[in-house]
Structure formats: C-alpha cells, structure tokens
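**User:** You know discrete backbone vocabularies at least as well as I do. Would you mind producing a protein record, from residues through to fold? Write it directly below this note and I will take it from there.

**Assistant:**
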Amino acid sequence: MNTPVCLYAWVSLDTDRIPPVLGCGGGTWQSIERPTTKASNLACDAAQALMAGVTPTLRDNSGLFIGSTTGSLHDDLEFDNSRAADGGQYPSPNAFRRTLPSTLATELTMDLGLHGPVVVYAAGAASAAVACVRGAEYVRRGMVPMAIVGGMEIWTDGPPAGLAEPGVPAEAIASTQRRATDERCQIVLALIGPADSRGDQRPIGKFTQARLGGSDIHAPRQADRSLGLLVDLLAAGQGQMVVDGAVGIKAWLELQRL
C-alpha cells in the first residue's frame, strides 16, 4: 500500500517557556493528576488533548513512535543515587521500575488505550525526526489506522555534561519568555493518519516526504535538535526539515498545507 500520510493535530509542551503549550487541531488541555511522575502526567495530558475525538476503535489499533536521546536517564540517575544513600540499604523500587527508555511511552499507551506498536528511537540529534518518519511509514503501508509521532526529553538541572543544548523553536523565541525550572520537559507530539481516517475532521496538512538516509557524521552525545525543527515545521504548517542525527542516520520531512 502507498497511503498518503496526513497531519491532523499537534501539540508542543516545554516547561521552560511561558506559555508552555503550543499546538493546533487538538482538544482542550485538561490537567489530570495520575499516580506517576510530573513528566508522565504532562505527557499524558498532552497526548489526551491531541487525541480528543478519536474513537475507541481507532485508538485501539493506533501506534506510538517516540524519539528520545535522554531516554530514562533522569530515572537512572535517581535510582543510582538511591543505591548510594545509606550504604545502599534503601534503593528506590519506584525509581527502578522507570529505568527503561520505553517507560514513559508505555504509560502513554495505557492512558490512551492504544494497543498498536510502541517504539522508542534513540537516533542522536535526529531522534524525534526518525520517529516521525517511522510512524509515517507504518501509516503509509496501512499497518496502523493512525499514529502518534514525535519526541520527549526530560532534563534535570540542564542537559548532562557533554550534551548539546536542545534546539529552541523559533516560534517559541518569538512569542514566549524563558523561565527556569529544576526539571525541564520537552514534548512534541503529532497525530497522523490517512486522509479518510477521520470523517469529522479535515487534515491540517500532508507529508509529501518522510524518509531516512545514511550519514558519514559521527558525533554522538548530542541532544535532539530535531525537536525544535519539528515544532517550527508544524507551526508553519508547511515546509521541509532535514536533520542529521550525527550517528550515521539522516531524516527528511516535508509538509504541505491542505
């Protein structure tokens, strides 16, 4: 199959910005307290706003494709700190259960009621872009009715040593002011699917290009700069982004407004 891939809604959350939320096409943001971490709560709130109005049948088989360079690093460090305290007598079981890069994505699928594929990509500076390309491929081949694609990063006291600062969307620079927080969450999610997947909602745009290629650049330990480029592309509603992950892979995305 070669189904056209359309954009239906998107949402961007950056807790280091005022206002923290940008987006289009989704539902009203509702903050719901769940028995989990602050970052997971924010991600679930963002995803629920993104999926507003999507029927349970569509949700059931839809997939989730997320890019992350930091993965579970925040919780890995928290668990290691708990092991070092009091001679290692009281390692935190709560932190331990979150020491998998897929933990946050898994919480999203449970909160949304998704039972399709769940994949987390670590592709250096192009992690979110690679996730978008892979999700678009699943939709194009008819393997899922809809997909949530994008990236999620959690920073505590700034990026770890050696990592580049994440890219800041031009839209955010122009319309918001910076604020400092102990924990910074950056989340960009987009809802994509075939042109006829939602009869009650017209697509915002269509992806005319979503592909991956090789790269000779090898400069690991870079933050995902495709997060900022992705927000710029979604906010503009059209254009092209090309990002090199610096780990042997490059991603192309091109969006056309409908």
About this structure: The longest helix spans residues 127-140. The radius of gyration is 18 Å. The first strand starts at residue 5 and ends at 14.
